[in-house]
Amino acid sequence: MENAFVLELSESKFRELYVCFCGYARCEPLHSYGPAMRSHYLLHYIVDGKGTYQTGERKFQLEAGEGFLIEPNSLVYYQADGKEPWSYLWIGFSGKRAEEYLEDLGLNSCQLTFRSQKGQELKRLVLEMMGCSDGSVTSRFRQQSLLYGFFSILSENAVDRGRSELSKENFYMERAVTFIRNRYSSNIKVADIAGHLCVDRSYLYKLFKNTLDMSPQEFLTEVRLSRAKELLSATKLSVEQVALSCGYRDTLVFSKAFKRSTGMAPKEYRREHWKPGKMDPGENEEILRELLENEDLKKLQKK
After folding, report:
1. ∠ CA(102), CA(287), CA(283), 5° rounding?
2. Residue-wise pLDDT tens digits, 27-52
3. DSSP-derived secondary structure letter, 108
4. Contacts for 295 with CB less than 8 Å, ≥ 6 apart
5. Residue-level pLDDT at 301
């Protein structure tokens, strides 16, 4: 259970970056959220206490003064500590340049957590934002300015990730992760990733082992199977359709890889984790429309 104060907003007139919702909560011991997905970016900042944040196979133990990023359509789980449950504030946002602005803060798929010593100021901004609830033009502009103020504070502790100052290794890793996230549903292989970066496979392997402690193939498989878990638990796509949408052209190969990772077959996993209500309204249909545009899935539908 959590004592939460939340402000949800209707469609914004802004396009580059805008607030979707925000809130503040004091959690009871072991209060948890998920596993679930959201359609917007979320930034959580821990005001006091501690807890755990998990996405995919990555797990973070966090405490007061730290925060975490939730990316759109990522399956996440977080839980308050049993003895020192956290209180946190959050801002949900979207926009055409949201990903770019997060990069300016040093946040992306490789770096999902952050620190700030200005917790009280961040809390003040969110509470003031929640006070702008009358829907007036003045309130909307004030919310927008507070959002940029929030980003401004976080930027003070951000590592400059501009390409001119990025290390070569970080630059290659970012490009590799982006390539995988954008192409995992197609039949890409490690050689394709290396070719995209114009590096040899041994160098690519070294990059991934040093940065993520896993091989490129292991990371690609994790991305595909994490997406498969999301689709199995939140859509009515068949196992064959899930396999194809996650980059597996052979359903048997997919099923074996899935069982090796989770300990259960895809259909068994769906029975155990079927939670369609965990997705935002309309997101299930959006995913179905997107996936069924895939030519391979169209062929499968006709069989």
Report:
1. 70
2. 999 999 988 888 889 999 999 999 99
3. S
4. none
5. 43
